[in-house]
Amino acid sequence: MSDLLRPPSAPAPGLAVEAASLLEALRAAPPLTHCITNAVVTGFTANVLLAVGAAPAMVDIVGESGMFAGVASGLLVNLGTPTPEQREAAVEAVGGATASGTPWVLDPVAIGALPVRTGLAHALAEQRPTAIRGNASEILALAGLSAGGRGVDATDTTDAAAEAAVSLAERFGSVVAVSGPVDLITDGARVHRIANGHELLTRVTGGGCALGAVMAAFLGAARGSDLDALAAVASASLVYTIAADRAAALSAGPGSFAVSLLDELAAVQPADIAAAARVESGAL
């Protein structure tokens, strides 16, 4: 990894202050968060959004998705189970979001070797998503540097995907978030590394997919504020992973963790963030 991609250690308060401000704004005016997501995680994703304080809407019907994206605060397009109708609805929704200025997140789940979702991910990326979220193997595959991971599981490290993340950010003007033991989030010029989070997130179906929805919600909450997309996406990751840390401390295993994660997303307060944040921030 290039030294340019390894930010100097920095105290958390910069991002922590932004995250606290956005969490407060989100709960004061819950953003309507439009999710086109995979069938495996729909219910969990909706519950995560409700727990953090957002308003979920799972609209993936052709003829409605584009219209709804135009009135939503933020949009998630997740390619986990891309049925023919859902693929058409995703394209329609992205068109509606682009026309109306709705921020949107692309989650290119399990792309690489699988041709249908991979082709769709590349086509949607050309529409310049506000943010792209994936594991290291998915980000490498989207950048054309890897054949992907093992299904939804990454076989590459976050550091290995750093150059790819910067490349995608520069090419599409997107914030790129690489999820892993340490999340890496960049806009191509600046980077945050977030070390919060817990391995139990990988043992609950929808742990990563729901994070994409939270990012869409925080992007919606940031509209009209002086905080940019990098702040919104990194803040979503920070709040989510702090809640995961707290949930893991209360859990006996994946089942109780899933329940505790919802509880802790609802319980975490803006004032809690600075003390809990484990962040490095810097310029590239």
Walk me through the structure.
With 284 residues, this protein is α/β, with parallel strands linked by helices. It has one domain: Ribokinase (UDP-N-acetylmuramoyl-L-alanine:D-glutamate ligase). The protein is 48% helix and 14% strand. The protein contains eleven helices and nine strands. It has helices at residues 13-28, 42-52, 65-71, 84-100, 115-125, 136-142, 162-172, 207-222, 229-249, 254-267, 273-276, and strands at residues 32-36, 55-57, 74-78, 104-107, 131-135, 175-179, 183-186, 190-194, 279-283. A nine-stranded mixed β-sheet has the order 2-1-3-4-5-6-7-8-9, sandwiched between helices. Helix 2 links the parallel strand 1 (32-36) and strand 2. Helix 1 packs across helix 9 (229-249). The longest helix is centred in the C-terminal third of the chain and has 21 residues, at 229-249. The protein is globular. It starts with 12 loop residues before the first helix and ends with a strand. Mean pLDDT is 93; it is low at 1-12.
Which strand order spans the largest sheet, edge to edge or round the barrel?
2-1-3-4-5-6-7-8-9
CATH superfamily, by name, is Ribokinase
Mean pLDDT: 93
* Total helical elements: 11
The end-to-end distance, rounded to whole angstroms, is 12 Å
User: Stretches where pLDDT falls below 50 for ≥5 residues?
Assistant: 1-12
**CATH fold description:** UDP-N-acetylmuramoyl-L-alanine:D-glutamate ligase
- Which percent range fits the helix content? 40-55%
**Structure class:** alpha/beta
- CATH class annotation: Alpha Beta
Q: Architecture, according to CATH?
A: 3-Layer(aba) Sandwich
What best-fitting shape do the alpha-carbon axes yield?
globular
Task: Please summarize the sheet with the most strands.
Answer: 9 strands, mixed
The helix-strand sequence is: HEHEHEHEHEHHEEEHHHHE
Radius of gyration: 17 Å
Number of domains: 1
How large a portion of the residues is in β-strands, by DSSP E?
5-15%
Number of strands: 9
